[in-house]
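Section 5: illustrative case.
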């Protein structure tokens, strides 16, 4: 959904409020189109997996694309200013609200809908607090020249982002298709547990280092030095 806009907002140090508003509304448009496609393709998804109960689940879940697209700019603004404590607070509050609600729904036998609620609630709470913490609200504007400022950056970042997403998820899709939902559940949890240390560390470092490196982009020697030091720290930690 982000199409690299979150990284572009962090990387570019000359963006105006109108630029940010243009990025916000473009993401809303893309999120809305994706949501509509996902909603109307729900029967195809259902047929692909051979799971009739997926129809309504996929249709309701499609709203996530709109909410997630609205979260990108305010979240990027917090990361750009290195306000990671605010981002962490948003995530923790979203975690408590969404998982708390999901546990209650699960206890009362709502089944898979508890998981649907959890993900949607997480996105809604995260968006709400990111907007509050960023002290930013988008004006109603969509300017072409604003988009040109980051077109080059996004065009180079987007293909990598798409490729990374599909290579990271193609195995889950195939297991769900050819082995079934129970096997997918076991495989997904096993993979999640094994990759938890690496994923947690990589997300933490990539989000913080990218913001820090963006501030240092005009000082090549200092950027190089910090990058080498960060790479050494990462290798030592993983080893």
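Designed sequence:
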């Amino acid at each position: 959904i982000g199409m690299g806009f979150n990284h572009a907002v962090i990387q570019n140090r000359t963006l105006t409020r109108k630029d940010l508003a243009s990025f916000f509304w473009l993401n809303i448009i893309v999120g809305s189109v994706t949501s509509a496609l996902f909603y109307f393709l729900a029967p195809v998804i259902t047929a692909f997996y051979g799971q009739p109960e997926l129809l309504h689940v996929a249709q309701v879940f499609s709203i996530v694309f709109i909410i997630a697209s609205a979260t990108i700019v305010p979240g990027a603004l917090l990361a750009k200013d290195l306000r990671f404590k605010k981002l962490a607070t948003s995530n923790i509050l979203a975690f408590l609200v969404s998982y708390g609600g999901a546990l209650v729904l699960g206890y009362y036998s709502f089944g898979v809908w508890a998981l649907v609620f959890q993900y949607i609630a997480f996105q809604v709470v995260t968006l709400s607090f990111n907007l509050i913490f960023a002290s930013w609200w988008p004006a109603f504007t969509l300017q072409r020249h604003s988009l040109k400022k980051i077109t080059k950056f996004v065009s180079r970042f987007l293909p990598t982002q798409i490729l990374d997403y599909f290579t990271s998820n193609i195995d889950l899709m195939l297991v769900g298709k050819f082995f079934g939902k129970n096997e997918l559940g076991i495989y997904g949890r096993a993979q999640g547990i094994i990759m938890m240390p690496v994923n947690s560390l990589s997300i933490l470092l990539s989000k913080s280092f990218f913001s820090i490196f963006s501030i240092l982009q005009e000082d090549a020697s200092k950027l190089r030095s910090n990058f080498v030091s960060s790479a050494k720290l990462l290798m030592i930690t993983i080893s």
